[in-house]
Design goal:
about 250 residues, mainly alpha, Ferritin
C-alpha cells in the first residue's frame, strides 16, 4: 500500500491552500452511545479463511481514517458552536453515521483478531477497547495524525473552511476505499468488500451533504471550489441530492 503518499499529498494541498497553523485540538468527544454500534451487519457475511497482510493493514488503516472523520467533524462542530455558529452537517454526520462506520471497522478488527502486529501499534481498537475509549484527535499513523491536525487547523477558520474540510475528508476516504475494495475483491473477502462498500456509500452521501452546505452559503461550485482533486460530479446521488446510502 502507498496510502501515506495520498495522505501526504492531501496534506500538501491543505498547506498550499493556506490552512493556517497545524495546532491540534484533541477534544474529549466520544460517540453518544459509547459503544460500537453499526448499521452494517457483519454476521450476514462469512469470515474469510485467510487474509493477506496487506488486506489486514487496510482494516487497521481504515479504522484510524474513520476515527479521523468523526473527530474532525465533532471537534470542529464544538469549536464553532462555542463561537455561536452551528454547522449541523458536522454534528449530524459525526453522530449519526461516523459512529456506525467506526463500529463497522471495529467489528472487522474483532473478527480477525487484529492487534499491534499490523500496520500500527494501536489500530482502531483491540477487543478490549470501546468506541468511547478511543482518544479523540490521536492516531497511531503519522500521516493520519498530520492530516487531522491540518484539517482541524483549516476548519476552525470559518464555516466555509469547515465544510471544505468535510469535502476533503470524504474524497480521501473514497479514494482509499476504492483501492481497498479492489484488493478485497482480488482475495475474495466478501465480508470486507461488503463492509467497505457500506463505508463508501456513506462517504458519497457525506460528500454531497457538504457540497450542498457550501452551495447554500453561496459557494456555487460547492466542493468543486477546492479544485479538480475534490470535484466529483460522478459520485452517486439519490433523489435528495445525497449519496446512495447513509444518513446526513
Amino acid at each position: 500500500m502507498n496510502k501515506s503518499f495520498l495522505l501526504a499529498a492531501t496534506l500538501s494541498t491543505l498547506l498550499l491552500a493556506g490552512c493556517g497553523s497545524s495546532t491540534n485540538e484533541a477534544g474529549n468527544n466520544t460517540a453518544s452511545n459509547g459503544g460500537n454500534t453499526t448499521g452494517f451487519n457483519l454476521e450476514t457475511y462469512p469470515a474469510s479463511t485467510e487474509l493477506s497482510q496487506e488486506l489486514k493493514e487496510t482494516i487497521a488503516y481504515m479504522g484510524n481514517e474513520e476515527r479521523l472523520a468523526y473527530d474532525v467533524y465533532m471537534n470542529l462542530y464544538n469549536f464553532h458552536i462555542a463561537e455561536g455558529v452551528e454547522i449541523k452537517q458536522l454534528f449530524n454526520i459525526a453522530n449519526n453515521s461516523e459512529t456506525q462506520h467506526i463500529g463497522a471497522v471495529q467489528n472487522l478488527v474483532h473478527r480477525y483478531n487484529l492487534d499491534g502486529t499490523t500496520l500500527v501499534d494501536n489500530p482502531v481498537a483491540d477487543s478490549s477497547v470501546t468506541q468511547a475509549q478511543m482518544p479523540s484527535g490521536r492516531y497511531g499513523i503519522p500521516a493520519i495524525q498530520e492530516l487531522y491536525d491540518a484539517l482541524y487547523a483549516k476548519g476552525i477558520n470559518s464555516k466555509q473552511d469547515a465544510l471544505e474540510a468535510g469535502c476533503m475528508v470524504e474524497v480521501t476516504d473514497i479514494n482509499d476505499l476504492n483501492r481497498d475494495i479492489a484488493l478485497a475483491e482480488s482475495e475474495g473477502a466478501t465480508d470486507i468488500i461488503a463492509a467497505y462498500n457500506f463505508l463508501r456509500d456513506g462517504s458519497y452521501n457525506h460528500y454531497w451533504a457538504f457540497d450542498k452546505g457550501l452551495k447554500n452559503m453561496g459557494i456555487a461550485d460547492g466542493c468543486c471550489s477546492l479544485g479538480d482533486a475534490y470535484c466529483h460530479p460522478e459520485y452517486p446521488q439519490n433523489d435528495n441530492g445525497g449519496g446512495r446510502k447513509g444518513r446526513q
